[in-house]
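Aim 2 progress update. The chain analyzed this quarter is reproduced below.
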Amino acid sequence: MRQREEQLADLELQASINALPGGQHFPHVHSDHTLASFFIEWAAAGLKVLPVVSRSDVRRVEGVITLDDVLRVYGLQGDLDR
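Predicted structure tokens:
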């Protein structure tokens, strides 16, 4: 069930990005960006989820990265809730 919800969310995100006028900037990162880049974009956007997009086609979503993902990598999951 969770996987299906994630697939639908990815499709909705892709549709939203495709609906943007050409050349319009939207918060995103690329798969080769550092976590520091994520934090800079995250802080500027104020979002908990950022799309990871293709370098060759910024409108093609390759995945998403969440603040929880990053915190989990550093062993800080749940620390912000305290």
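Strands lie at 29-30, 49-53, 61-66. The chain has three helices and three strands. These observations will guide the mutagenesis experiments scheduled for the next reporting period.
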